[in-house]
Amino acid sequence: MNVVQLHPDQRRAPQGWPAARGIGLKRVEKEDAPPSADEQCQLIQAVATARDRSAFAELFTHFAPRVKSFLMRSGLPDTVAEEVTQETMLAMWRKASYFDPSRAGLSTWILGAGKRWGSRSQGKLGLL
């Protein structure tokens, strides 16, 4: 087995990054900031009306990790949570026109769908 050893000077966090003990931290740049609620509504409307793949990709990048984390905290194994996340995001693509911003926020809508998909999976796997 090969072991890589770093010189002590190389173990420090890069300049401008917070120091952490082995925790992978990333500086958030202005362009990496998550979309605001209004931007999320515009993105889901673009998916609903024009099947805009770049808008969907932006929503996927923002919401998929959150859905997976939510599902894993509810007791689903990693691989099942990944599969349910994919199903949830696919449902978002297919049913984007059903989103009504006057009834709920987009995150509530997506996480609610993830919860329903996750509950179905838990029932099928006998995890309930």
User: What is the global morphology?
Assistant: globular
Number of domains: 1
- CATH homologous superfamily assignment: RNA polymerase sigma factor, region 2, helix turn helix motif
For this structure, the CATH topology is Rna Polymerase Sigma Factor, Chain: A
Instruction: Round the Cα radius of gyration to an integer and report it.
Output: 19 Å
In DSSP terms (H or I, runs of 4 or more residues), the helix count works out at 4
Q: What CATH architecture do you see?
A: Orthogonal Bundle
How much strand? Answer: under 5%
Taken in chain order, the helices and strands follow as: HHHH
Segments where pLDDT lies below 50 for 5+ residues? none
CATH C-level: Mainly Alpha
The termini sit apart by 42 Å
The percent of residues in helical segments reads: 55-70%
Care to count the β-strands?
0
Kindly describe this structure.
The chain is globular and about 40 Å long. The chain is built from four helices and no strands. 20% of the residues are buried. The protein is 56% helix and 0% strand. It has a single domain, classed as Orthogonal Bundle (Rna Polymerase Sigma Factor, Chain: A). It is an all-alpha fold and 128 residues long.
